DNA sequence: AATTAATGTCAAGTATATTTTACCTTATAT
DNA sequence: ATATAAGGTAAAATATACTTGACATTAATT
């Protein structure tokens, strides 16, 4: 699962901790997802996309193994 | 997490087992998600939407508690 | 140079998604 | 009436997401 979280965060100029708070998870969770260590739940993915005012597909992209 | 899986399945005229096979999960998983018992992973949600040729947001809708 | 903010990471624990196996009900077909 | 297809459900096991707490590293600020 690839994602554009880092880029979208840069556009909004917010930190991982900021985003974490906005979507009600921990900073470590955002860090892991942003690094592609695992893919989030659908609910969290949708909340993240919503913060960026983007669709889920604009923020996340399926890869081979997913 | 609300969803329109039942409706989209009806449009494609496919069974829960059919959809399950297409997205590589078990029939019980589709049944549970369709019934709203839990929300899928982002990867699975995206695969389901893709089968319906819809966006994630057209198939799934966030609710209060999510 | 020193301090602070931001990010990276890790281990252990909890929560939840998914599988497996199995059975039950309802509708449809033979 | 009986068989078959489709859906509903449940318990136990496994996989994975997420939390908590802590520490290390890098970037930015003064």
UniProtKB/TrEMBL annotation, chains A, B:
Q: Which organism is it from?
A: Dyadobacter psychrotolerans
Keywords, A to Z, come to:
DNA-binding
Q: Which InterPro entries match?
A: Cro/C1-type_HTH (IPR001387), Lambda_DNA-bd_dom_sf (IPR010982)
**Start and end of every HTH cro/C1-type domain?**
5-59
Pfam families, per this entry? HTH_3 (PF01381)
Q: What is this protein called?
A: Transcriptional regulator
Q: Provide any one GO MF term from the record.
A: DNA binding
Q: Which residues form a coiled coil?
A: none
| Top-rank taxon | Bacteria
Task: Tell me if DNA damage is a UniProt keyword of this record.
Answer: no
